[in-house]
Structures are given as structure tokens and as C-alpha cells.
Amino acid sequence: MSPTLALVSQLMDAITRLPFVIAVLTKGTVLVLLALGLTRLLTRAPAAARHLVWSLSVAGLLLLPASAFVPWQLELPVLAAARDAFAGEAAPSSIRSVGAPSPERTEPARTSSSTPLATPASSRSDVADDLATVSASTSMFSRLVERFARPSVILLLVWLGGVAWMLGRLVIGVASVRGMVKHGVSAAGDDWEEIISDASSAIGARPVGGVVVSSEAPMPFTYGLFRPVIVLPESAEEWSSDRRRSVLLHELAHVRRRDLLTNAVVQLACVAYWFHPLVWLAARRARIEAERACDALVVATGTRASDYAGDLLEIARTMRSSATGAVALAMARRSDFEGRLLAILAPNAGRNVLSAARAAVIVVAFAAPAAAVAAAAPPESIAPNLVAQTIAQPAADVSDAPSDTGHRATLAHALPESPNEPGERAEIQSPASAQSRDRAVPALLSVVGDENANVRLAAVQALGQLSDPRAIDALAEAMRNDTDPRVREAAASALGEIDSPRAVPALIAALGAERVVAVRAKIAWALGEIEDARAVDVLSTALRDQAVEVRRQAVWALGEIESPAAVPMIITALRDSDPEMRKQAASALGEIGSADAVTALSAATKDPDAEVRDQAVSALGEIADARALPALTAALSDDEVEVRRTAVSAIGSLELRSAPPGLIAALRDRDPEVQKGAAEALGNLEDEAAVPALIPLTRSTDTEVKRAAVQALADIGGTTAIEAIVALLKDDDPEIRKIAAEALGKNR
Q1: Does the pLDDT of residue 186 top 60, yes or no?
Q2: At 670, which CATH number?
Q3: Beta strands of 363-436 (E only): which ranges?
Q4: Could you give the CA distance from residue 637 to residue 626 in angstroms, rounded to a whole number?
Q5: Residue 115 has pLDDT above 50, yes or no
Q6: Which residues contact 360 (CB under 8 A, 6 or more apart)?
Q7: For the chain, how many structural domains are there in total?
Q8: Are 214 and 232 contacting, i.e. CB atoms less than 8 angstroms apart?
Q9: Contacts of 56 (CB under 8 A, 6+ apart)
Q10: CA-to-CA distance for 398 and 395, rounded, in angstroms?
Q11: I need a labelling partner for 547 at 20 to 30 A (CA). Which of 3, 165, 262, 607 fits?
């Protein structure tokens, strides 16, 4: 019992060591991002190349936990936080051999000589051993209970729960697919045998488990790691010979490429990393690229691309969603279907197959940096305290310049930059860097009242970069009473950076008392950064400030706070003499989103300044009130193209039941962006009245306009729209065929 509990305890120590877990997750994230970057470089390469990269990445994820035991390791700064964050934990004891005696076990106590009944020596020894074992086991069990109460162990239990859930889903999926195979019947007959033989010869692989027709199969799929079997739906008996051959070629391509093996590895990675969104991204991309690689192999056998794409499209449209889960490879899943059609119809589809030489190059290109990532280890961290000590000293103690205030100002500037690279804002997370901040903030606070203005300015700016709430009182005092307006402005800026509601009363009081324009503008900015509704009244008053800079910052801040109480005052700002002020007011009303502003914003769509009109139209789109439709329709005829572009987008955001005639007319606008925006908006409205006007745009010379028009027709649907899209699949222009295929895939 005791050795078993000791082993469990040792394992708990190993797997709940959070720095190790964080290091594995960090490396895993870098690994997936590495795969993402490499596949982006391989955009024009065969799909099999990208599938190879994704497969290697998920396989690497499963091997990452073993990277902690490699004999050689590299220094990687990004992992330093994991070690520093848990540096305070006691170092775990070394794992003892299971057969070694436990140090907790003590010599059993001897039975007293005064015992009334004599007991044989061997019995006394056995009883004592049993008591000692129970005692040691109880002590060990208590320690295990304490370990299970640690947050790291709780996280472990949550992870294990997710693993159990994922494994349960896989087991259910396996049982479901095995049932389909078991209840299916073998594809028999001379016609089937001939097609299977022909497809096997063409692709270079055979279905070891045969071909089965099942009434339970939702669509064609391949299943079986060692004896792959192709399962076809019952409707396959009615398919033409060409369609049967296309389907079998695709499924046999999975067999030839051993995609079922890589799919099993992917699913294991999803089980282990069920909580990691990037792992799910890698799994999805691996599945998509596997399908595209099989499509390329089918076309490479001489199958006509357009016929194969038509078969694939028909299967996706008529078959129900796959119920095979992740344990089988269904032929026509609907996600990324349009991308597959585009790849099939590409001119080089039949030649876009991965060679062995290129595969070897890709393996090396991925494996080299992946190995470096796996072997990475955190370097020793150094907490810089020298600057804090120096700046806190009186000027006479600075050996190189006893009275050089410029030297102390430079140190104040440097202090918040010391944990990171120069010029970056300090991001203090680990205990080591937190200790640096604990020393830096008091040191800077001690010189906020320095006699030299440059030193005070540098200290205030540094406190703003550190964003420590302990500096709020000192910064508020400097903002109110410092004699240098630069320091007061920097103090207001620092309070905005700290972003604490505690600073709001001081900022409100200072805004009313300040006489310097630049400082008042910075105070208004800081109130906007904090976004506290208590500042609405003082900012509304600032909208009447004589200085335009202050008015602009005040109306921007009110937009950030997003309080409906500010709407009446912001509406008055729409009549300000400054165009930028009117533009900011329209933007603020859009941020607040109050329907009370619709009338005023509708009037602002006729403003003499084009940027104001554009912002007013945009704000009406954000409010999305149907009462704005007349003003937005009128804006479709604006002389400025940017206003017209914004207007079509704004109309698209309204909850309308039918397409406005003005929006349909915008399809004839001379600007392609307006045409595109109008097409997208009409597609969202799904009104068949727009179909006749959309069809001519499918012949536009602008690719984006054509794409938007075809997609709008697909969204609207209806016999006329679908007929127009289907007809485009046979168009002489390959670009139009691609756009149509993409739209039909999304229309499913």
C-alpha cells in the first residue's frame, strides 16, 4: 500500500508542476504558429504539402511532454515567466525508486512485557508491521489529500475530465461507424467489381476491407486503420458509373495516402489538448488539406475536373450531414467546400501533386525549427534594481555627477524600460519583475516633488508607463499644483494610463480649474480613457470651451463613456463651427447608439463638409434605426464616393423587410466599391426583387463586384438566381467559374 501511494504522490508532483505545464503549452502554441506560417508560404504548393506540415505539427504536440527530458536544451526568454512565476514554490523532492524503503516508515514499537497474554514473537512482529504500514499509509494519504486541494491539481482534474469527455465521444463515434459497416452489404455485381478494379488500378490502392453499401451511411466515407473499408450510402446503387468511379477514386486516395493514420494522430492531439483553440485549428486545417490532396489525386488520374466537381457538389447538396464524427473520413463535409471546388477547377489541379523530394524538403524545413522549440528552456532572469536604487538617492550620492539633475531625469526615464527592451512599455508579470516595480514606484514617487522640473516630468512619465495605482494620489497632486504645465499635462496623461476610477474626482476638479489649454485637453482625454459616467457633466460643459482642442477631446471622451445622458449636449456640437468637432460629435453619437440622435444625424448627412457627412452616415448605420432610411437613401446620391460607400453599408445594417429602390439603383453606381457594397447589402436583405439588377453585375470587369453579385444571388436564392449561378459554372471565363463554385458551396 505504502509504495503504491508513494508512487502516486511522486507522479502527482511531476504532472502538477505548473512551470512544466506552461512550458509545454507555450511550446505547443509556438509549434502550431510555426505550422501556420509555413503553410502560408506554401499557399501555391500542393495541398499534400500543407497537410504534411499540419500532420507534423499535431504529431509534435503529442511528443512535446517528452521534451523536458532531452539532454540538450536551448535558452528561450519567453519561457522565463513560467519559472519565475512559480519560483516561490518549494522544490519538489527527488523521485525515489519504488522499491526503496520509505523514510516515513519507522521501527515498529515492541509489545510491553506486562501484557497479560503472551504473543509469539512472529505474531507481534506481523502486527507491528501492519500497524506501521497503516500509519504510514494514513500519513501518505493525508499528503495526497493536501495535494489534491492545490489549484494545480484541480486544473489537472478539469483536464482529465475533458480528456474523458473527448475519449467518450470518440468511442461513441467508433461504435456508430462500426454499426454502419456491420449492417451494410458488400457492393456486389459485375458492374461494381469492374468499377472497383478500375479505380484501384488508377489510384494505386485497394480497399482491404472491401466496399460496403449501408442504408445508415449519410454519405461516402472511409473507415478502418489497418483494414480500411469504403462505406457508401444506399443511393449509390442509383449513381451513374462515372459518379461511382469518382467517389471510389476519392476514398481510395485516402487509403493510398494513409490519411486514416494521420487522422488518428490528429484526434489524439485533440483529446490531449481539448482546451487549446489553436490545436483545433490545426486539426481542422489537416482535415481540409487531406480532402484537397485527395481531390488532386483524383484529377491526376485523368478524371475531368468539371465532372468531378459536379459530382462532389451534387453529393454535398443531396446527402445529409455526416454522422461519422471524427473517426472516419467523410467525402463531402460542407465546411470549406467552396475552397475545394476552386482547387478542383484550377488549371493545374491535375499536376498539383506532392513529390517525394519536395516532401523531404518540407519535413526538414518544419522539423529543424520545431526541434529547437521543443528543446527550448527559460534562461536565468535578472531583476534590475540598480536604477531604482540610484534614482532614490540624493543627488550628492550619485558618484559620476553629484548635482546633475539631467542624469537623474535620464534614470527616471529608464526605470520603467528596464524589465523589457528600451522604448517598450513595461509588462511586469513575474515575481522578479514585480519586485523591480515594487522598488521602482517608491523611488519615482520620491522625486515627483523634485526641485528640477525635468526630473519631475521624467518621474511622472515613468509612473504613467508603469501604470501602478499606488501613484494616483501623487499624480493627482502634481496635476493640480505643479508649477510646470508640462508636468501637469504628463500627470493627467499618466492618470489616464493607469485607468482607475479613483482618479476621476481629481480629474473632474482639475478640468474646471485648469487654465492651460493643452492640460485641459489632456485631462479630457484621460477621462475618456477611464470611461466613468461621473465625468459626463464636466465634459458636457467642456463642449463650450473656447479652445477647439479641448472641445474635440471632450466630445471624443463622451463617445468613449457612451452615456445616453450626454446625447443632448453632443447634438448641439453637431452645429459647432469646427468641422473636426462636428465629425467627432457624429462619431460619439454613433458610439453611444441612441435612437434620440437619428433626427440630428440625418440632418448632418447634408453637412457642407464631406467627412462630417460620411461620419454622420456611419453613425446612423451603427444606430441601425429604420427612421434613418430616407437620409441614407439620399446619401446614395452624394457627390463624394466615400459617403456613398458608407451609405450602402449603413443601409445594409438596417432591419428592413424589403430592398429599398435606392439601394437597387446603387448597383449602377460608377464606383465599383459602391456596387459591391450594394450587392452585399441586398444579399443580406434576401429580397428577390433585386435579382434582375444583380445578374448584369455577374459580367462586371471588376472581380470583387462579380464575387459580391454572385454571392448575393446565392444568398437570395430562388429559381432565377440559382439558374444564373449554375449557368456561370460553364462560363468561358475561369474566374467566373471559380466565383460561381464558391457561391454555390456557401449556398448549400
Answers
A1: yes
A2: 1.25.10.10
A3: 376-377
A4: 19
A5: no
A6: none
A7: 2
A8: yes
A9: 35, 363, 366, 367, 370
A10: 6
A11: 607
Cβ within 8 Å of residue 716, ≥6 positions away = 682, 683, 686, 687, 688, 690, 691, 694
- Alpha-carbon distance 287 to 363, whole Å? 19
Is 426 among the domain residues?
yes
* 390: CB partners within 8 A, 6+ apart: 398, 411
Domain that holds residue 713: 659-748
Contact 587, 560 (CB under 8 A): no
Phi/psi of residue 452, nearest 5 degrees: -95, 130
Q: Cα 164 from chain centroid?
A: 25
Domain assignment of residue 510, yes or no = no
Domain boundary among 414, 445, 466: 466
CA distances, 744 to each of 285, 290, 340, 727, 728 (Å): 21, 22, 12, 11, 11
The predicted model gives 129-158 an average pLDDT of 56
More confident: 260 or 743: 260
Show which of 431, 447, 466 is a domain's final residue. 466
Strongest mean pLDDT among 223-237, 306-320, 424-438: 223-237
- Weakest-pLDDT range from 460-474, 551-565, 589-603: 460-474
pLDDT tens-digit readout, 640-650: 999 999 999 99
Question: Which neighbouring-strand residues pair with 75?
Answer: 377
83-109 confidence digits (pLDDT tens) = 444 444 433 333 333 343 433 433 333
- Look at residue 500 and tell me if it is in a domain: no
- Torsion angles phi and psi, residue 75, rounded to 5: -85, 125
Q: In terms of DSSP bridges, do strands 376-377 and 74-75 run parallel, antiparallel, or are they unpaired?
A: parallel
Residue at 714 is within a domain: yes
